[in-house]
């Protein structure tokens, strides 16, 4: 099957239904279908051939969607990238993904893309073709899309996604469009180039549903859009959820239309989720856990578990998913209660067999999983291995601390020393925080360097950027 097949089927069934609300524009499924056909014609005329990869530097919207699906139609693959990248970063990703000499970008990023690549990207000309090529015949193993890992600790790497894997994932999540039933209304506020944003858009299209586009997240604007468009479903990262709950407009916004909030992509503190559940008692909360290589969620914590006090867990494996928790040094399964590397096997992972995710988790006696950071984030202080999440939990419990991030910084004597970035609600001294930590942690786990910030640096998807924190501390 071609990735575009389920979207073509939805266009045929609910053509006059609104697919996207983007600012003042309402774009129907029929208009999406026409835009995809024109984009495929333009890309083909520019020389894009089956197997080629096309750099896409554009936020969520018709041009981005048409590029992804237009490439799929002609057997090529789009490679969506962040609109916030520098020209040097774009050059590096284009080389890593082996993109061809054609790119697509919006007005906001066109100059940066041209500087990076040495040629002008396609902008409004994308819809200039009147040709509508038929869907290319593709094999399940042909690449339909290239996504990039989040790059919180290093350079993002390209992850090719095939028509077979991605197409089955979209069909598996999307119900068959029903023209007699009203569409579900969701809001798209996570970046389009991330798996959560892009797969969410494709699933919404395949299901014949309506998406309200927020190109760049802002809590106050999110509240306004949800109220105005009677949004029912949302995907948020925990940092977004925290800002929504603390926004001045939260208490006076009508959120009665909200039915479900799915959250993930970064760790969520249990106290934050408990607060959200209490503030929005009519909303079903679902925590999902996965990564780009798994095409999103492989575990989930459902609404009933949230009400039963299991906030902080990432739930249990979803149907069809097998998991192991493994000692990364030996490859042996660890017993319940012990932290190990999360291995997963499912039909929608990018590689067959067991995928070593690099995530650290533990499983309790009831089978619930708890995230414990990334293997690459573990600090090696003179041979002692420290999990940053353990230290962060202790720091967040201090009455003067709002948030904390713990990370390793290079040290000539021990290899690494422990540093902590602190967002404080009241003035406090590093010595006081060290005393607090020593009361609850082994001495070797106590941070030795501190940086006090107004807020933690986050990636676009709301993950703490430990790379930025290391650079900050090393500079100081």
Task: Tell me about this structure.
The chain folds into two domains: 307 residues, 3-Layer(aba) Sandwich (Rossmann fold); 98 residues, GMP Synthetase, Chain A, domain 3 (2-Layer Sandwich), CATH 3.30.300.30. Helices cover 30% and strands 26% of the residues. The chain has 14 helices and 23 strands. It has a nine-stranded mixed beta sheet, sandwiched between helices. Strands 15-16-17-18 form a four-stranded antiparallel beta sheet. Helix 7 links the parallel strand 8 and strand 9. Helix 2 crosses helix 3, helix 6 packs across helix 7 and helix 9 packs across helix 10.
Task: Please give the structural blueprint.
Elements: H1 5-13, E1 18-22, E2 25-28, H2 29-45, E3 53-57, H3 62-73, E4 77-81, H4 87-97, E5 103-105, H5 110-117, E6 143-148, E7 158-162, H6 163-173, E8 185-188, H7 195-206, E9 210-213, H8 219-229, E10 233-236, H9 238-246, E11 260-263, H10 270-279, E12 284-291, E13 296-301, H11 303-307, E14 316-317, E15 322-326, E16 340-345, E17 355-363, E18 369-374, E19 379-381, E20 384-386, H12 388-396, E21 401-411, E22 415-424, H13 430-438, E23 449-452, H14 466-475
Parallel strand pairs: 1-9, 3-4, 3-5, 8-9, 8-10, 10-11, 11-12, 22-23
Antiparallel strand pairs: 1-2, 6-7, 12-13, 13-14, 15-16, 16-17, 17-18, 19-20, 21-22
